[in-house]
Amino acid sequence: MNPINILFLIYDLERGGPELRLLDFARHFPSDIKMHICVTSKNVSLLPEFLKLNANVKVVPVFKGYLELNKAWKIYKYVKTNRISIINSFGLKELFLSFAIKAFSGWKIKTVYHSVELLHHYGSSQKNLLRFLLKTTKAILCNSEQSMKFIKGFSVPEDKIAVIKNGIDTNCFRRSLHNSQDLKTKYGLRKNEFVLGTIANFRDEKNYPFLIKAFRNLLQRHANLRLICVGGGYLLDEIKEVSRSYGLENNLIFTGYSKDVAEYLSLMNIFVLCSTRESFPNVLLQAMGMEIPIIASNVGGCAEIVDHLKNGILYPSNHLGRFIEAVEILIEDRSFASKLAANARRTVVKKFSLNRMIEEYKAFFRALSERQNDKSG
């Protein structure tokens, strides 16, 4: 059987959902599916991890795809040399590049748009361009039903869309595997302290000001609380300043970026996600796999993961009272919190395993490779 050569066009190789999914592909795809990666920026902190796996990675920084068709031609030459038959793009710029490469190939390349966010930040001109480019793709991959609903709003036929929900390695995300004593010592966590935690980069949609305000209110009634925020990003210094203005320095821990989020999850009594926008957050699956009771804002694909009051708690985004109420329920009713946590672990093992996700992607790309070429592909 001839291998299926796929090029994944992606903006960067930083520690985010799509990038970590590509790492899973590099580890677990079979020999008949050969992956290539082209990064369109210079942000490649994960590159050493890909190179350890002997992944084929090419870095071609592109500022604006429609102004740099010479870069598209450069990528096309790589595509031609390596007999790539499918291009999977993440993001609008990458989708445009895949369209140009397909045109250079005489429409022989099959293109896939991989939708991993709900694109709230797109303006009308960007949405119009996306609408046009989606018509030229062979298929659209979504990681949530919510994302599929959004894509269908661009008049995309349903039979052109596939939904493959994220999965995690449930053998790695297991509380019994992680000893958090060193981290407890590092951050001075005491036995009687109750730890809230979140893992999210410091961006607007992660809603850190809301979380810090809620924590300040909770601390007035629960003096033994600590909050751990794992992540980095452009708003980190600003949020640190907000926490200082509230006088929270002794109760709030900022860890910065971490490669091993499971170790930090093992510190937490409750995991919270306060986002105003999400597609299908991997971090919820990771926390649930670690058997931690979770509280998440009811946005995007979160409700496709969390069954309210059965394996976690959902609250209306930005509703301070409902969020605080949810935290206090889990603080005061440990038996209920344990029940949610156990159900969370069972949910992830049954529905969101890494093996299930990899099998679905393998089936998708094999089926796509077998489809007859046409000009819309």
Task: Please describe what this structure looks like.
The model has no long low-confidence stretch (mean pLDDT 93). The chain has helices spanning 17-28, 47-52, 69-81, 92-104, 124-135, 145-152, 181-186, 208-219, 236-245, 261-265, 282-289, 320-332, 334-351, 354-370, and strands spanning 4-10, 33-39, 56-59, 86-89, 110-115, 139-142, 161-163, 194-199, 225-230, 252-256, 270-273, 294-297, 313-315. It starts with a strand and ends in a 7-residue tail after the last helix. Helix 4 (92-104) runs parallel beside helix 5 and helix 8 (208-219) packs across helix 12. The protein folds into two domains: 4-167 and 354-370, 3-Layer(aba) Sandwich (Rossmann fold), CATH 3.40.50; 175-351, Rossmann fold (3-Layer(aba) Sandwich), CATH 3.40.50.2000. With 377 residues, it is α/β, with parallel strands linked by helices. It contains 14 helices and 13 strands.
Primary descriptors:
377 residues; alpha/beta; Rossmann fold; 2 domains; seven-stranded parallel beta sheet; six-stranded parallel beta sheet; 14 helices; 13 strands; elongated
β content, as a range? 15-25%
* CATH class categorisation of the largest domain: Alpha Beta
Number of strands: 13
Give the number of domains.
2
The CATH superfamily label of the largest domain reads Glycogen Phosphorylase B
Query: What is the CATH fold-level name of the largest domain?
Result: Rossmann fold
The biggest sheet amounts to: 7 strands, parallel
Helix and strand sequence:
EHEHEHEHEHEHEHEHEHEHEHEEHHH
The amount of helix comes to 40-55%
> Looking across the biggest beta sheet, what order are the strands in?
3-2-1-4-5-6-7
Low-confidence stretches: none
Mean pLDDT: 93
The assigned CATH architecture of the largest domain is: 3-Layer(aba) Sandwich
The helix tally amounts to: 14
Structural class: alpha/beta
Cα end-to-end separation:
22 Å
Shape: elongated
Radius of gyration: 22 Å
Q: What quaternary form is this?
A: single chain
